[in-house]
Amino acid sequence: MRRRDFIGATYGAALTLPFRAVAQQLGKVWRIGHVLPNNPVIGGIYAQMLEQRLADLGYAQGRNIVLLHRYSGPRLDKIQDVITSLVRQIDLLVAWGNAGIAAGKLIGDVPMVFIAISFPVELGLVRSLARPGGNIT
């Protein structure tokens, strides 16, 4: 009787192993839009730095995040076109410089992190530096 219990438990555990492995791998894959208001040569350096820092934090491209890098150039109309096309397909927007200023008006309820923007309170992007409020940090 004990032998049958042992074999049954072992067989049952072996059957559930593939299902447990699949369940652990499934999860949300975050789509992050990354808009830089310059060309790919200069912006590529910043894109690599962002990817490296996210990798240091345990996020890997294609595994649990998808980074969508876009280089818009300095023209405001091009920046707005790039942001508008990204907003429908991302969970988070990371915007540099002028792209952050333009994105503040276009993103709706998509969370945004802005980088390298002077005077965000005066520009109306956030209420205060201590408590930005809304979906912009």
Helix content: 40-55%
- State the CATH class of the domain at 30-115: Alpha Beta
Number of distinct beta strands: 4
**Mass-distribution shape:** globular
- Coarse structural class: alpha/beta
Query: What is the chains' assembly state?
Result: single chain
The termini sit apart by 64 Å
CATH topology of the domain at 30-115: Rossmann fold
Give the secondary structure arrangement, pairings included:
Elements (H helix, E strand, L loop, with lengths): L1 H24 L4 E7 L3 H17 L8 E7 L4 H12 L4 E5 L1 H9 L5 E4 L22
Parallel strand pairs: 1-2, 1-3, 3-4
Helix pairs in contact: 3-4
Describe this structure in words.
With 137 residues, the protein is an alpha/beta fold. The chain has a domain of 86 residues: Rossmann fold (3-Layer(aba) Sandwich), CATH 3.40.50. The chain contains 4 helices and 4 strands; from the N terminus they run αβαβαβαβ. It has a 4-stranded parallel beta sheet, with helices on both faces. The protein is globular.
